[in-house]
Amino acid sequence: VVEAIKDLVQDCNFDCNDDGIQLQAMDNSHVALVSMKLSTGAFSPFRCDRNIALGINLNSLMKVLRAAGNDDILTLKAEDQPDSLNLVFESPGQDRMSEYDIKLMDIDQEHLGIPETEYAATISLPSAEFQRICRDLSALSESVSIEASKDGVKFSCSGDIGNGSVTLRPHTNVEDESKSTSIALTEPVNLTFSLKYLVNFCKASSLSGSVQLCLSNEVPLLVEFKMGAGYLRFYLAPKIGD
Amino acid sequence: MSSQRSISSFFAPV
């Protein structure tokens, strides 16, 4: 998760409570919003005696996380009024244990309320497919139009060297549901977004085999990667024609 | 040309 969001947001409050750990942060230019939840089910055990916000610089956290082995068991601990976050990595055979503390920071961040939205279009597709579309179209243009209709969803762009588009139609993969593409539509939508941000969101592709895109005209796009016990959501403000 | 909207123009602080 940290790897997926560290290029978008830098200083974040990890809000800990009985439900687990949540994070909400805007990127510096206030175009995108990251919303992450890891429920208690992601941890074993999980204990939180008092609601607490752990202000962490993600670059610092990455430096420490890179010291962990892929299969290590990670324990995160913070005291009641902490100055630091304690991280312990234990190898699966328990023959190696490493321990780090990183300094916490006071982050004065405004929390935005995200209204419950009935989206006009909800599209599920393989995350690798979405990553490829964003990467391919970003070679041509800064922006992509996403047009969802009953016939399918069309990603199109135009730039200095020409234009391009990719159209996806609903498709069911009976062996692996994450490789299916589905489109639920209540009304057609057509919105334009910055590809730079979408390419950035796709760094989360390794977290989930499929990604959900939720669109309504004139509101931010929701790009959601579901995780076993939580989610990573990105909201992106649309571009509006003059 | 199109202009980029800000996310905070859609979601209000709580």
How does the SSE layout of this entry go?
The complex is a heterodimer of chains A (242) and B (14).
Chain A: H1 2-5, E1 11-17, E2 20-26, E3 32-39, E4 52-57, H2 58-65, E5 73-77, E6 84-90, E7 97-103, E8 121-126, H3 127-138, E9 143-149, E10 152-159, E11 162-168, E12 182-185, E13 189-194, H4 195-201, E14 210-215, E15 221-227, E16 230-236, E17 239-241
Helix pairs in contact in A: 3-4
Chain B: E1 2-4
* Lateral arrangement of strands in the main beta sheet of chain A: 4-1-2-3-16-15-14-8-12
Radius of gyration of chain A: 20 Å
Tally the beta strands of chain B.
1
Helix/strand structural class of chain B: mainly beta
The run of helices and strands of chain A is HEEEEHEEEEHEEEEEHEEEE
Main beta sheet of chain A: 9 strands, antiparallel
| Mean pLDDT metric of chain A | 96
Beta content of chain A: 35-45%
For the termini of chain B, the CA-CA separation is 33 Å
Total of DSSP H or I helical runs spanning 4+ residues of chain B: 0
Q: Nearest-angstrom radius of gyration of chain B?
A: 10 Å
Distance between the termini of chain A: 36 Å
